[in-house]
């Protein structure tokens, strides 16, 4: 008859290897938790969000931070000087008083001012980058080819969230509303179709072109010399929001800048971010018309 004690010891010894294997499996899962959720943790988020592969470099930046600062400083200064000094002085010299203009006259004045500001801003950009010409082919990409408009339309899905962030911003910083309506609002209230059309051109055509060229076309790629793509998108979005000089819209404009930056990076086409920008401005303008 077999010894029961010896049989028990032998059984335990035979079971030990499998127990150690089980413990090894547990230790493996603890040390390497990615294997517990491969469908989520192994996703290439850089590719999923920005459409980029790891290590992929989109732009060769031939200039340094000095040129980046120079362009942005002069661009901001030009808009300030042209809009508040040069255009009013020229108007006064030709005998035009802005305050005595009709609604249509004020709308045309705003359109001329915006075109002048944008033209001077583009001239500054061209002049500052002239010593680096010819620029690498990936700079300021504009092409009608591809499905860039799909990226722009997908970006429109974030508009409700931008609106919600606007309300949050107003709740956090409840500054009193101005006592007088803006020129755009006065024009809308006057029901003047020509004036409304002129203002629509300013906000939905001119502004998106000037702003996208400088913030997404120049600033965002330039920052990739020092920052990763996601960091460049974030910093350029903050600069975009600050450029509107409205603390009450800082949160929604920063988020909108993030969306337009992602759309630009994914599409590699300025037309995509310009279209998205134009659609947002048009959305806001139509909301004023109601």
TrEMBL record:
The UniProt record lists the keyword DNA-binding: no
Ranges for domain CAAX prenyl protease 2/Lysostaphin resistance protein A-like: 195-282
Highest taxon above the source species: Eukaryota
Keywords tagged on the record: Membrane, Transmembrane, Transmembrane helix
Region described as Disordered: 1-23
InterPro entries, per the entry: Rce1/LyrA-like_dom (IPR003675)
Transmembrane segments annotated in the record for this chain: 67-87, 197-219, 225-243, 255-280
Identification of the protein by name: CAAX prenyl protease 2/Lysostaphin resistance protein A-like domain-containing protein
């Amino acid at each position: 008859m077999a010894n029961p004690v010896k049989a028990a010891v032998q059984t335990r010894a035979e079971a030990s290897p499998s127990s150690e294997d089980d413990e090894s499996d547990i230790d493996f899962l603890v040390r390497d938790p990615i294997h517990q959720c491969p469908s989520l943790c192994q996703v290439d988020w850089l590719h999923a969000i920005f459409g980029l592969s790891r290590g992929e470099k989109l732009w060769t930046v031939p200039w340094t931070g000095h040129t980046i600062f120079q362009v942005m400083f002069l661009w901001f200064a030009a808009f300030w000087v042209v809009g508040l000094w040069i255009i009013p002085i020229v108007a006064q010299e030709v005998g035009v008083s802005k305050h005595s203009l009709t609604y249509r006259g004020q709308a045309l004045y705003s359109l001329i001012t915006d075109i002048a500001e944008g033209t001077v801003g583009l001239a500054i950009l061209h002049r500052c980058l002239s010593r680096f010409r010819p620029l690498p082919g990936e700079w300021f990409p504009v092409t009608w080819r591809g499905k860039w408009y799909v990226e722009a339309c997908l970006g429109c899905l974030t508009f409700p969230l931008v609106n919600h962030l606007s309300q949050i911003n107003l709740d956090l910083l409840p500054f009193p509303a101005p006592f007088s309506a803006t020129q755009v609002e006065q024009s809308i209230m006057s029901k003047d179709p020509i004036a409304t059309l002129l203002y629509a051109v300013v906000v939905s055509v001119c502004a998106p072109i000037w702003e996208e060229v400088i913030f997404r076309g120049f600033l965002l790629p330039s920052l990739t010399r020092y920052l990763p793509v996601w960091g460049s998108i974030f910093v350029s979005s903050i600069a975009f929001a600050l450029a509107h000089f409205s603390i009450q819209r800082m949160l929604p404009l920063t988020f909108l800048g993030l969306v337009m930056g992602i759309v630009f990076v994914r599409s590699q086409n300025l037309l995509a971010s310009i279209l998205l920008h134009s659609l947002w401005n048009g959305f806001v303008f139509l909301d004023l018309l109601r």
